[in-house]
Structure formats: C-alpha cells, structure tokens
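Researcher: Sequence recovery benchmark, item below. Answer with residues only.
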C-alpha cells in the first residue's frame, strides 16, 4: 500500500530542521563565550598580581659624618728665588742647565773676573799706603798702637779720615765683594730653571740669571668661601689630587689669610711633600674633611626624588614607604639626612631600615624583598 504525503508537509519538516539547527548553534556559541570569558578573567588576574622589588637595605644609626669641603688650587714651590749676579761682565763658565738639581753652596756659573782681581789688588796697595800714614800720625801724637779699641774715639776718627785709612778699608771690602760676586753660588738646594744666557754673553748685574726651585716641599694655594672659615684650622689635614695624576697626596694647612677678598673668599695654603712627580704650577683638587658627630648617614643612592622632593624609602612589613627628608651635609659618597621639618608625616629615627639600592622604580606601598642588609 502506497502512502502519499501531501505537498504542505514538506515546508513543515524543513522549518523544523532549521529551528533545531539554530537552537544547537546558540547553545554552542554560548558555551564558547563562557569559556572565553573565564579564560580572560584568569589572564587578567594573573596580569595584575603585585610585583615584588628586590632591594638593598641598611639600618640607620647615629654616626660620625665626614663633612667635605672641595676647592681647586695650584701648587707653588715653598722656596723659589731668582738668582742673579751682583756685578756685570761676560759669562765665562756655566756649570748647570735647566732641570739640574743642585746643592746649597754649589758653584753655578762664573763671570770674567780679571778687572775685579785688578781692583782688589789696587785696593790692597791703597790700604797699605794709608796704613803707613795712619801709623805715622798716631806716633806723632804719642800713640804707638793701631788697635781701634785702644785709641780714643775722637782721635781715631780724625786720624783715619785725614790719612784716608777708613776709605781704603771700605774700598778693600768692596773689591773683595765684587770679586766674590763673579761666582754664582746656590743659596739653597733645588732645581735650576729659566736659564737664558749663554757662555760669552754679557750678563747685567741684578738681572735674573736663573731661577732656583726647592721642590722637595710644595705649597698648594686655594680659596674657600667665607662661610667655610669655621671648618678649617691650621694643621688640619687635607687631601690633594693633581688633575694630571691618578694619585692622592696628604698634606696639612700651613696658613689662612685673615682678610676676606672682594669676591667673599679667603686664601688658604697647604703644605705637601713631593714624591718627585709634582711639578711647579700643577692644578689640584683639594679636599678638606671635618668630622661631624651624631648624624644619620646614608649613601647618596638612598635619596631619590618623588614629586620633585627628596625622599627615603623605609621598609615596614615587607613594603616600601617613602618619607620626605632633607640633606643637611654632603660629601663625595654620602648624605647626612633628617626628616623634613615641614612635612608632619615625615619621620626618621635610628633603627629604621631604609632602602639604599633598587629604589629607582619604587612607589609608596611597593612590596619589596630584601636582597641584603648592611
């Protein structure tokens, strides 16, 4: 028996299939959306887990702070003199050259001495003549001695003047001095510099012939501002660093000029021994340290800027809390700090644990892990 379906039955079956398909698809997409939302929620939670920063810390305590004054200066020889001849003539011998080290009393150079030898010989002859006349006149007055202390002063002066005896004595002293002055002798030990004349050139009396520098000890001249006067004293130790040498020298303050100059500075000099590497005129950096007791001292790395103000980070229960501070003293590596007096919330006390490293990216309430404790 054959069953025949009516033509109207086909559209109903098709509609039923489409409706079933839509229901199943809706359920599938809803399930996928819920799964995706759950995954995104997990990702967001993982993304915003608080980051912990590894930091270095130290415990604050009252200690001495080495206050440091820094200035630039120049070294000069403690003894530096122009050496010259007292008479004029041609240079006959030159026994040294620039850079030579000479000892006190060493012969440096000689002038031609012929005319000065002649003057001395003539002065000796003139003195002998005057002496005979002097003795004759004394004998005529009944005095048989030439000792000055044994002759009445008025008589001695009158006889010596009339016979030319006193003038002859003076000429002899002058002639001896001039002859001696043709030889240039080192007045102290040191190095020779600034020789300009050559052998056989004429040398003028009183003109600088050479410079003698005692470079065993140098003075360093530098300036401090007047507000720093109270931080320096005679014999205070100083550290001296030549710009041209990677070396630090120790010295002490030798003089403090009591006059304040127009620009509000004072001249200070320090003495430093030469190890053979220092040279006249070298430029120096001078550091003066003064101990200031009972200060809270931190390395410079501990102080950072937040809101354009200086802060320190303290560690409390694993978190970093900033506190506003003021730096009261400074040297090349450290600060002396106090809690900022204008910030009521700022506190800083001995025993506080403060962060000295790893603090550049910290914020208030940042969680931290202590790397090490100094």
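Model:
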């Amino acid at each position: 028996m054959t069953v025949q379906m009516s033509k109207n039955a086909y559209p109903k079956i098709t509609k039923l299939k489409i409706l079933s398909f839509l229901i199943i698809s809706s359920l599938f997409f809803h399930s996928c959306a819920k799964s995706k939302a759950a995954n995104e929620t997990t990702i967001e939670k993982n993304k915003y887990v608080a980051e912990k920063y590894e930091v270095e810390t130290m415990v604050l305590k009252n200690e001495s702070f080495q206050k440091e004054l820094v200035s630039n200066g120049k070294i000069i020889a403690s003894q530096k003199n122009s050496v010259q001849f007292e008479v004029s003539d041609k240079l006959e011998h030159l026994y040294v050259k620039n850079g030579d080290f000479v000892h006190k009393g060493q012969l440096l150079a000689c002038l031609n001495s012929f005319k000065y030898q002649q003057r001395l010989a003539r002065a000796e002859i003139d003195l002998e003549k005057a002496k005979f006349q002097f003795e004759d006149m004394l004998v005529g007055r009944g005095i048989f001695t030439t000792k000055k202390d044994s002759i009445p002063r008025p008589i001695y002066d009158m006889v010596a003047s009339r016979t030319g005896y006193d003038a002859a004595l003076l000429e002899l002293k002058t002639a001896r001095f001039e002859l001696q002055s043709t030889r240039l002798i080192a007045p102290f030990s040191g190095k020779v510099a600034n020789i300009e004349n050559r052998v056989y050139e004429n040398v003028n009396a009183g003109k600088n012939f050479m410079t003698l520098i005692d470079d065993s000890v140098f003075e360093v001249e530098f300036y401090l501002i007047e507000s720093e006067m109270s931080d320096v004293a005679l014999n205070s130790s100083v550290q001296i660093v030549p710009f041209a040498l990677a070396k630090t020298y120790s010295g002490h303050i030798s003089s403090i000029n009591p006059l304040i100059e127009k620009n509000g500075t004072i001249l200070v000099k320090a003495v430093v021994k030469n190890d053979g590497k220092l040279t006249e005129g070298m430029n120096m950096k001078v550091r003066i340290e003064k101990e200031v007791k009972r200060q809270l001292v931190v390395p410079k790395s501990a102080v950072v800027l937040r809101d354009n103000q200086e802060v320190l980070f303290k560690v409390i229960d694993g978190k970093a809390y900033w506190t506003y501070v003021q730096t009261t003293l400074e040297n090349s590596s450290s600060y002396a700090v106090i809690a900022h007096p204008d910030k009521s919330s700022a506190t800083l006390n001995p025993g506080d644990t403060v962060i000295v490293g790893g603090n550049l990216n910290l914020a208030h309430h940042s969680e931290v892990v202590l790397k090490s404790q100094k």
